[in-house]
């Protein structure tokens, strides 16, 4: 039996990374930046892919580039192969030098100012040759990036059920109001008592917003959200301006104008260190083990600055 590759497959193998990057990004410039190659070189590789396959794979859509039906079919069938090949090369390379390598690491906005940077600084002191590619996003976006291989590790709140995870601790949620708000004199409040209050919250795609909405539903009301915003520090600033109240984790930096009020009931959510299902490189395993061992010290740095 002849097991040699067809000329078309042989031509495609060195070009699949280019195809995969553009298909995933939907943008030639961003894909070129991701691969670290000139845009002109990437465009030539795309034309070579189409020539090897013999069909049109991409079509322009405004300033972006989209897959044709044939391109989508090829992407669905090859994206796992490209990731598996990249993982294999990463493992082989890093096995030769476990003190170096690249780790793609993500963490949530609520742990950005102090906790995670301090934890990473401590890791860098122990492993200065390991490079870190950092991504900050909300929880569901981080989980999706781990699932599809764009991230090796991520701290997420909470950890998903379908990926390997180490529970690092819990994050307590409180009610935050402006110092001048009538509730600022309270030490504790039941969520049901807030039915008539205007709230400031994240968009519905955020886990914190979904949790908040579910708690309000259990309390018998739908929250009246006057402001939606993705950025937590700005959200706190809006609360300090007395434009609404919010359910949030404790800030990691001083934020004048805020008063924290304890919410009755169990108001915690878990903090997890999530990894993909493929075999980690030694560099990834080293960061994973360091975070698991030292997270209780650093994730406890969020203090009540209100």
Automatic annotation (TrEMBL):
In terms of PROSITE patterns, this protein maps to: HTH_LYSR
Q: Which parts of the sequence belong to the HTH lysR-type domain?
A: 13-68
The protein, known as: LysR family transcriptional regulator
* Protein family according to the UniProt entry: Belongs to the LysR transcriptional regulatory family.
Source taxon at top rank: Bacteria
Q: Which UniProt keywords apply?
A: Activator, DNA-binding, Transcription, Transcription regulation
Q: Which residues cross the membrane?
A: none
